[in-house]
Amino acid sequence: MIRSSLRRGLLAATSVTAIAFAGVLFAQPALADVTNGGFETGTLSGWTSAGTTAAVNSGAHSGTYAARVGGTSPTNGNSSIAQTFTAPGGSPSLSFWYDVFCPDTVTYDWATVTLKDNTSGTTTTPLAKTCTSGQGWKQKTSALTTGHSYTLTLISKDDNYAGDPTYTLYDDVVVSGTVANDFSISDSPASTTVNAGASAMSTISTAVVSGTAETVNLAASGLPSGASATFSPASVTAGSSSTLTVTTATSTPSGTYPITVTGTSPSATHSATFTLTVNGSGPTLTQVSTDPFTNTSSQHATELEPDTFAYGNTIVASSQVGRFTDGGSSDIGWNTSTDGGATWQHGMLPGITVYQGGGSWARVSDPAVAYDARHGTWMVSGLVIDANANGAGVTVSRSSDGLSWQNPVLAVGNDGQGYDKEWIVCDNTATSPHYGNCYVEVDITSSGNAVVMSTSSDGGATWSAPVAPSGGPSGLGGQPLVQPNGTVVVPYSTNGSSIRAFNSANGGTSWSSTSLVANVTSHGVAGGLRDGEGLPSAEIDASGKIYIAWQDCRFRSGCPANDIVYSTSTNGTSWSAVTRVPIDATSSTADHFIPGIGIDHGTSGTTARIGLYYYFYPQANCTASTCQLEVGFLSSTDGGTTWSVPQTVAGPMSLSQIASTTQGSMVGDYISTSVVNGKSVAVFAVGKTPVNGQAFDEALYTAGGLSLRGGTVQAEQAPAHSAPAPSTPPARLPLRTAH
């Protein structure tokens, strides 16, 4: 017999009208959990197919596409598409359209539709077996039960008889009903630790669960005594986020407090828990030293820009003391602990400036500490400054015990050139071919910030003539590190635009060309604070793996604030992708800067124990009169893969409480962290309200040894460099000096 070959195929899918419903208020019919019901994607995405199926662009019930189940040539057995969905509220129902092309009889070929209620385990047949041809589009509907899960299967059966292929078009599958508006709420971080009197922040995120986005009003309850909570903003549209700031009082009792953050919309209420631990007085802050000077040419009492180095149980810290507004200080102070940071002794280095021990220089700046194990000598380097506020060279003060200090030796300079930002390190690996060598890095400002190195092999008594790395790089703030095999790696800032590094494998006789660690993208810190402009903080683990940390905004859209980030290398030439330390969410309002990274030198690799101190503003968008400066700390016990919850160890302090300079208020261009007996020790500048007629009360404090704890907060890595690092340094930027 002759059979019609007219083909049209469509599966019951979401109509254009139904799609439009998805954007209206929740009281209206809305698409609920049926994906691609109108097949307007031009595919069967969202459906599970079996047999012969396709999305076709002819004969659709509405729109452009329909689903054809079965083929235009004979097929054997059932073809089908299926999808599982959940019924919404408000008398929900299912509807679909179908058009059958069946030139045979229902005995052999047919179209049928089944609807299985997965919740109750029952199955109905909205479309019984039918075999018609030329009848056009027809619609079927079925009632649903709110909240039940259903599997809809659209079927076409063909007996594979030559000359009468059977197929069915389905289109405009719609589930209608009343879709309730709902949202979820979460916080990140979900917990944090602060000192009494400090603030904690968490990003409160909301998301649309069903229906349309409504306004969510935020509130906090369960606050400890004396604490207050604010949300910025106080209400959000579901899908947006807010920053929760909990401010404690100095009288807030120590303890752990589960704070309930509640979001309320016209349709729903949900909550999340933010766990706040208050340290009472926090880690006990010990004042390490104070400014003893009274000369009227510099600011008192001010101590700032500390560096530390530890060997055995001894820690030596140094800092600027009596800061001048236009560069340098009255002297460099030394602060030494011989019991792992429990107690401290302090004094001033003699023979450098005219203010202490008969020195001849007008000022000194940029202190850095090293220890030479081979020669049993502690060293503090400094940038000596002449009466015209020009950096004149590098001195090295030496001591056998960190307590009694000799007058300095001149390592580099006093030759009419300008210098800035020196650093010092020694090779302390007994098996190294260059054991006992010490290295100074400095830049020559009068030669375009040209970077040079000098070497000593006699405990810092004498120093070699400066040697420039291959290619003559320009930059500042280099921090040399020595690997166990004696290779010296020197990361430095290319005047703020990037971090690069060079190395020497022959004990400082010659130095390589530079390699790119990473370009730097940073947010300008508010309030006119002098923030080091991305100078690197560098450390090394027991295996020789190098960690370089700096402030960077690349992880935050629009660069509204900085995170602390780092890159690592095992050879000093190939560097990892930049990794973000997860102090808080990238949507937080906090700004983080001036990092000081420290590593337990007895650990390495995936068990390397890291401590990180840093300064931060809880609110990045502040002014010189409103910015609140604090000191934070967190740690990792797995080489930086995961991190502990951060804690605030000092602050808040106002910018008016710290030294004023021509480049901004100042706690230092850098800080430092040392690890002793498994604990992280740092010395940092803290400003307080001055008394006794002093202009300032900015002194050095320590929180003692903070335990290096692991955590569960995952670090975030940026994509790896898409191209090899250039073999030559970038073009020089406008020069800066920072002494």
UniProtKB/TrEMBL annotation:
Alphabetized UniProt keyword annotations: Signal
Q: Which residues form the signal peptide?
A: 1-32
Q: Which residues cross the membrane?
A: none
Region of interest (Disordered), ranges: 713-739
**Which InterPro entries does this UniProt record tie to the protein?**
Sialidase_sf, TAT_signal
- CDD domains in the record: Sialidase_non-viral
Q: What is this protein called?
A: Uncharacterized protein
Please tell me the species this chain comes from. Answer: Streptomyces violascens
